[in-house]
């Protein structure tokens, strides 16, 4: 087992990496900073050579489990391959060197990309308007529910205090509702993964501001009664919010706008293959139906009659919920999504939905055949599906977490574990459309081997991993005694 | 097998209640703590808060899940287990003793009849 030193522990006085050193600040610039705002001591930076820096971080990166190295079937996260071409296009000097405050006349290329991206997203989701402003999925959700609130407020409809959320929803949904000042009322999901429609109807009323749902849901199945659900919520005067986490499954096939949703956020960093993991940056554009158009967050890209592009801001859209950041979204991420959409085209979008669903259903059937238990065996999977290891936990003492850790030894990244909460000892598996049949088969073989071990030599599974840089980490201690700072 | 003391009453959502002199002590069952795994954080209600049976009155969080706590009875919160702030593991180690969560001054002792007996709770767990 190799212990990795921190870069600080490699420090030696006097060593430096000239290429990475900041330029010395001229005294006249320094004197512009008031004395009381200048630091008294030098910052505690490591003193290391360029070679040490390169080697240190290259060695660290070699320890990564990553989509570039391994199958990475994290359900509910759509960890698909991010095409290098989209990356290259977004790195063109004209984009990289553009200043966000540059005049519109100097940003026509960028603005045209953003305008077209808004239109692509409108078309693929069936919504009437799209704003690219939200910086991430969570901010997209916030913007979405803030628009629902703005809509009710504008009508003087202030008795609406509740947001309905099925318990198969993403955990962020209730958090968003509460952040926007609403109470959350949970709606149960039946044993087949569909919403309990009678319970939903009973929960709807004059206090209903809206319903937030993910479709396909976190159960990995498509909600078959969505039209009845939309009708019930709309009849009560509420609006429907679509969490775009699982948009990958229906891309090019079904549109949230056609299902009756009033507002949707899309995770471009999932569905449109822009890099994520490790904290972003993300992009969470929002799309809306006709009645929420006045409230879209700004700025947005617009086109004049003469074909030139411009920013639409609160000076012309004063009903907007306003800005969500200093500028508009994460420009680089939006550009990658734009090139991804352009290179796929309409036909390609349809194939994303088809192949992600095909891959999930192939993997589910093969895993069932080697002895895995599906949580919803009677349902066709969407782009992801749930296995439960409740039987193994009870009979063999081998938990979902043990199997997840053992997968690392088989060079497979573990799927999402223990989510959604309503299925005990579960894996949520999403292979995505970018995996080959061979990669899926390798995962099945690894799972078959692990189940065999669980029956014959359970300690191999319970004590895994054996081949990683570290053995099993004490995540309880890490959570109870969180310590993120380094000090000498 | 998880422990289910016969003298306590249970909610379907896995809380237990023990009543003495009109005050119910509330915690989560041994089965619930076992299903959650090692707890890392417990959020408790405030003393003085008035709650109805079924109201959310806290959260228990482990490394794999966070789960709401619902008061099994109605009344006023008269005491909370402050030791859990530093030692959430008490809920795992001694769920029916030092790992209690809060105490409720009951408004209606008759509500206890709505809760499950130890046998009924055992039957619920077996059917899950």
Overall helicity of chain B: 10-25%
The string of secondary-structure elements of chain A, in order, is HHHHHEHEHEHEHEHEHEEEHEHHEEHHH
Low-confidence blocks of residues of chain B: none
Radius of gyration of chain A: 25 Å
Distance between the termini of chain A: 25 Å
Residue share in helix of chain A = 25-40%
**How many beta-strand runs of chain A?**
12
CATH H level of the largest domain in chain A: which superfamily?
Type I PLP-dependent aspartate aminotransferase-like (Major domain)
Q: What's the shape of chain B? A: globular
Report the β-strand fraction of chain A as a percent range: 5-15%
Give the class-level CATH name of chain B.
Answer: Mainly Beta
Order of helices and strands of chain B: EEEHEEEEEHEH
Give the mean pLDDT of chain B.
94
Q: In order across it, which strands form the biggest sheet of chain A?
A: 1-7-6-5-4-2-3
Major sheet of chain B: order of its strands?
1-2-3-9-8-5
CATH architecture of chain B: Beta Barrel
The most extensive contact between chains is: A-B, 9 and 10 residues
Which structural class is indicated by helix and strand composition of chain A? alpha/beta
CATH class of the largest domain in chain A: Alpha Beta
User: Describe the biggest sheet of chain A?
Assistant: 7 strands, mixed
Structure keywords:
heterodimer; A: 488 residues; alpha/beta; Aspartate Aminotransferase, domain 2; Aspartate Aminotransferase, domain 1; 3 domains; 7-stranded mixed sheet; 3-stranded antiparallel sheet; 17 helices; 10% strand; globular; B: 128 residues; alpha+beta; OB fold (Dihydrolipoamide Acetyltransferase, E2P); 6-stranded antiparallel sheet; 3 helices
In short:
The complex is a heterodimer of chains A (488) and B (128). Chain A has helices spanning 27-30, 50-62, 84-90, 93-96, 108-125, 137-154, 172-179, 197-203, 226-235, 256-259, 268-271, 331-369, 390-396, 400-409, 437-456, 458-462, 475-480; strands at 129-131, 162-166, 183-187, 208-214, 239-243, 263-265, 286-288, 300-303, 309-312, 385-388, 416-417, 426-429.
């Amino acid at each position: 087992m190799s212990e990795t030193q921190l870069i600080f522990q490699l420090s030696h006085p006097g060593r430096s990496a000239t290429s990475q050193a900041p330029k010395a600040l001229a005294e006249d610039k320094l004197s512009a900073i008031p004395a009381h705002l200048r630091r008294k001591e030098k910052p505690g930076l490591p003193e290391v050579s360029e070679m040490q820096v390169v080697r240190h971080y290259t060695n660290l990166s070699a320890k990564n489990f990553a989509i570039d190295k391994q199958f990475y079937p994290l359900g509910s996260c759509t960890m698909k391959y991010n095409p290098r071409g989209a990356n290259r296009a977004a790195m063109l000097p004209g984009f990289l060197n553009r200043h966000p405050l540059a005049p519109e006349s100097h940003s026509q290329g960028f603005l045209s990309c953003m305008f077209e991206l808004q239109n692509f997203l409108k078309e693929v989701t069936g919504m009437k308007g799209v704003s690219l402003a939200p910086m991430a999925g969570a901010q997209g959700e916030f913007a979405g529910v803030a628009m629902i609130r703005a809509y009710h407020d504008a009508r003087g409809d202030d008795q609406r205090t509740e947001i309905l959320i099925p318990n198969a929803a993403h955990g962020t949904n209730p958090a968003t509702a509460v952040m926007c000042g609403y109470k959350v009322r949970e709606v149960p999901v039946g044993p087949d993964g569909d919403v309990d429609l009678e319970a939903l109807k009973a929960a709807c009323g004059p206090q209903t501001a809206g319903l937030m749902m993910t479709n396909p849901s976190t159960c990995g199945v498509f909600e078959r009664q969505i039209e009845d659900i939309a009708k019930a919520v709309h009849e009560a005067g509420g609006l429907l919010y679509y969490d775009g986490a699982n948009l990958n499954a229906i891309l090019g096939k079904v549109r949230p706008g056609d299902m009756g949703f009033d507002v949707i956020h899309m995770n471009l960093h999932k569905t449109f293959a822009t890099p994520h993991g490790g904290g972003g940056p993300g992009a969470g554009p929002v799309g809306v139906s006709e009645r929420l158009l006045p409230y879209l967050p700004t700025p947005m890209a617009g086109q004049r009659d003469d074909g030139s592009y411009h920013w639409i801001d609160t000076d012309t859209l004063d009903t907007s919920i306003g800005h969500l950041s200093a500028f508009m979204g994460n420009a680089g991420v939006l550009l990658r999504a734009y090139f991804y959409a352009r290179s796929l085209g309409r036909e390609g979008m349809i194939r994303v939905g088809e192949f992600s669903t095909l891959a999930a259903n192939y993997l589910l059937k093969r895993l069932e055949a080697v002895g895995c238990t599906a949580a919803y065996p009677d349902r066709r999977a969407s782009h992801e599906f749930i296995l439960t290891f409740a039987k193994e936990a009870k009979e063999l003492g081998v938990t979902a977490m043990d199997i997840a850790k053992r997968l690392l030894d088989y060079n497979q990244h573990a799927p999402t574990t223990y989510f959604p909460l309503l299925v005990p000892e579960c894996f949520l598996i999403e292979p995505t459309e970018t995996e080959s049949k061979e990669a899926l088969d390798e995962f099945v073989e690894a799972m078959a081997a692990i189940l065999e071990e669980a029956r014959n030599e359970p300690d191999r599974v319970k004590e895994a991993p054996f081949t990683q840089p570290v053995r099993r980490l004490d995540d309880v201690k890490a959570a109870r005694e969180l310590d993120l700072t380094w000090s000498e | 097998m998880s422990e289910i003391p016969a003298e306590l009453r249970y909610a379907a959502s896995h809380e237990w209640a023990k009543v003495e002199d009109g005050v119910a002590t509330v915690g989560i069952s041994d089965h619930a703590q076992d299903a959650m795994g090692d707890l890392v954080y417990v959020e408790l209600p405030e003393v003085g808060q008035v709650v109805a049976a079924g109201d959310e009155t806290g959260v228990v969080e482990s490394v794999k899940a966070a789960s709401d706590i619902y008061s099994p009875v109605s009344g006023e919160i008269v005491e909370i287990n402050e030791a859990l702030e530093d030692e959430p593991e008490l809920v795992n180690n001694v769920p029916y003793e030092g790992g209690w969560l809060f105490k409720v001054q009951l408004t209606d002792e008759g509500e206890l009849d709505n809760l499950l007996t130890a046998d009924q709770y055992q039957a619920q767990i077996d059917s899950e």
